[in-house]
Design a protein that fits this description.
- There is one protein chain.
- By secondary structure, the protein is mainly alpha-helical.
- Helices cover 44% and strands 11% of the residues.
- It has a single domain, classed as HUPs (Rossmann fold), CATH 3.40.50.620.
């Protein structure tokens, strides 16, 4: 019986990261984020995204932000924020001091929009 060559499947995301590191982009740093909307409990698709984003950051000695996309206050709830944080930790990941909320940036985004309008660029 002859041995068959095992062909390892390509991972296009890792290929892109490797190429960026090789090219010196971002000084070779990898920084990802997991941006859930806190309007419900997580499902298996979220778990996949958590493992992908936090996992890639870990594999490349990088960082991963936990950034809540809290842009719909009528559907969002602190209970879901707490549950999501607990689930990320249960999967074995830690965002350390990189916990962010989109709503924290609303005023700055508004100011940018006003500036673009005043410049005639929007």
């Amino acid at each position: 019986m002859s041995e068959k060559e095992v062909i390892k499947p390509s991972n296009f995301i890792r290929n892109i990261i490797d190429a960026d590191i090789e090219a010196g982009k971002n000084d070779g740093h990898v920084h990802t984020r997991f941006p859930p909307e806190p309007n419900g409990y997580l499902h298996i698709g979220h778990a996949k995204s958590i493992c992908l984003n936090f996992g890639l950051a870990n594999d490349y000695d990088g960082l991963c932000n936990l950034r809540f996309d809290d842009t719909n206050p009528h559907k969002e709830n602190e209970e879901f924020v707490d549950a999501i944080k607990k689930d990320v930790q249960w999967l074995g990941f830690d965002w350390e001091d990189r916990l962010f909320f989109s709503s924290d940036y609303f005023e700055q985004l508004y100011n940018y929009a006003v500036q673009l309008i005043q410049q005639g660029d929007a």
